[in-house]
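Milestone M4 deliverable, item 7.
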Amino acid sequence: MRLINRPVAAVLALALAGTAPLAVPAVHETQARPAPESFADLAERLLPSVVNISTTQTVAARRDRQGPDVPQFPPGSPFEEFFREFFDRQQRQGQGPQAPQRPRRAQSLGSGFVIAYADGEGLIVTNNHVIDGADEINAILTDNTTLKAEVVGRDQRTDLALLRVRSDKPLKPAAFGNSDTARIGDWVLAIGNPFGLGGSVTAGIVSARGRDIRIGPYDDFIQTDAAINRGNSGGPLFNMAGEVIGINTAIFSPTGGSIGIGFAIPSNLATNVIAQLRDYGRARRGWLGVRIQQVTDEIAESVGLTGGARGALVAGVNEGGPADKAKLQNGDIILEFNNQEIREMRFLPRVVADTRIGAEVPVVIWRNGRRITVTVTVGELPEDVEQAAATPGPQDRGGAPVELPGTGLKLSAITPELRERFGLGADVKGVLVVEVQANSPAAERGIRPGDVIVEVQQEAVSTPADVQQRVARARQAGRQNVLMLIDGQQGMRFVPLPAGRG
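Output delivered:
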């Protein structure tokens, strides 16, 4: 998976803020339309709204590299690959001279589109990764007019940025459409700046909706087979009414070129963020203050949740956050937020994000075998959210390692010697995993020696006997699985393990 101009980076956090819809341009309802005999009329009308984004930045020279600097070409250019391979080969053969130790100017190219123009000032939308780190940003119109651009606001989590330009001649804004009405199989046009070649038009269909490609907490991408390549980043995806229903952001490709799998940020997600960038210079997000994980069938069974796996499992609560103030707990399963059903874990960040900051909303949770409704006052997501600390448990107690039948685990209380052996901090409390049998249920679920069991069935444990008692109690209640809160190499997470037989 690639962002169109660079490799994808994985990120994770929680929430996005509700706001008034972007005033200009308006959002319109659309109907599916058949493909025309030609896209020429539509392309001619839309091309003036699309711009090329050119950025430059100073890149520090690397002091550990032999060989000359590779000449800078537009990202994805055939010349870029040719010269890079040539100079790399020279370096491997020891023919390259010492690289000059001086900063160099690097250039990047992408796309964008005008969304508003008034009184000589225009607003342009693009991807954040197109302008990230840039010292200078220029927007190039279809008639090759170059306008200097300044950043109004940017948002890394949704990879969106808003630019401002001054222009003596009027710019032609594009109108946002309703991405929720786009159906699989609908025709779409992608316009952008592939490989630095200038404005190019490609046609295809909506291949899929709601794609989660794991590059951010709000992944809900439109997938299309319209050819999208490096340099198309930030460009618009149009429907047949000429409305923007997506912002082209990423492609799936082993080479960096189009293989017919491209992804666009839906307009209905983007317009809220863009409006906030315009008004505040940043995205203001609603915040619940929890760490969550997916509810599996085993987890649902272990807590008696009927009707199948659904919702978002609370794996941690940020101290002092909105969820903490509302008394949400580790192990709660959020089934509804603000009267919206949470069918999967990944839906919760988007729903919280779209909720007005300061709103008091009902949250339906599953706790101790029954549905409970609590009221949460939505906060604003801090720029840097601290993770919640593990709740301190009882004091360490000694004892020999104990095998937990059917799981593949051997457990021990945390002694000073074991704390030092496994490098555990002084504040780590719970029951230590000292051995994991190969190919056991615990091993298959990623539990490793040195991990610590903090809770079993949402009750704190401090000795192997505590774990055995909780497991036995669950087994007597007819549970096939028990839910354990594990603090380990993968962070704090809930893991279902077999309860075994009595």
